[in-house]
From TrEMBL:
It holds the Pfam family DUF4817. Residues 9-55 form the DUF4817 domain. Gene3D superfamilies: Ribonuclease H-like superfamily/Ribonuclease H. GO terms for molecular function: nucleic acid binding. This is DUF4817 domain-containing protein.
Amino acid sequence: MVGVPLCAEKRAYVIEHYFRTQSYKEVFELYKRKFPGATVPNKSTIQRLVDNFRSRWTLEPRKRERRCTVLTPENVADISKRVRERPSTSVRKLASQMKIHPSSAYRGLKTLKLPAFRAMLAHELLPPDPLRRLKFCKWFQKFIQNSDKGISALEYVFFSDEAWFHKSGYVNAGNFRIWCSENPHVYRKSSLHSQKIGVWCALSRKRIIGPIFFTSTINAEAYHSIIRQFVSLLEEDERDCWFQQDGAAAHTSEDTLDFLAQFFDDRIISKGLWPLRSPDLNPLDFFLWGHLKNRVFRTPLGSMEDLKRRITEEINAITPAQLCDVFSNLIKRVALCKDQLGTHFQQFL
């Protein structure tokens, strides 16, 4: 059998009887009778022994020559220095710079215990943003602490957002692309002017209100219509809820803020309190849109009505337990954001 070493006596027996019979099968049978219970060498092992004898006239197996390693202490130190200076360099580039094989560079990195970490894409933050994010996080934590309902108070805080769902499978929420975490294994033709539908939702720890569909870019008038529909769907105990929205122009014009105050008074998390460029703190951005993309586009869609129907079905299928998990995640995100003084924190999730 390949990989089982043979002693000198057995090697001699195999070679002698091969030259006598010129038959692998005969050697196989003779060997079994001569050495009962021993592992019988197969054809490739016998062939290797014979070839070795013919080429070297010896029964001793060929010793493997140990390659001279290029991973000298000096080279390992050089790898360490180069990686410290440029942590994002690739193994191939490192090998090219040092004139060694990529596998040697990789072994050097393993020797140094320097595993590779995939960079995480994050949204851009401008200089004023961290302080605004920190302000919101402190307010959010204090809101929960001061409420006699504790975390259950988040059942009466509705976060809102809108996104475009393209029939081709692309989802766009504001300026942030939502990528699918699972491969849907579906081929889709792309179109220069893909059919799409706008989706607006509001989400609390208890439930989701929506989808409310729209077909054109939201202006103040269209947004007022959406809010009226949202308010009409609130239950009696939700009338005093808090309402969050982002800083889009249609959301934060003077007319719109006056309009919102009719329903929510000062319970509005918007311009001044909600930080710009913070999709990582909005449950619709970090959960809902990506979840829907994973589910809605698993199989091809026939029409826009199919798209609307599937979006509605998948939203209705989200359970209260899932929403509780989402808001537990939000609380964790807020704490991490505060710890990082309002800067990026996703790498610690």
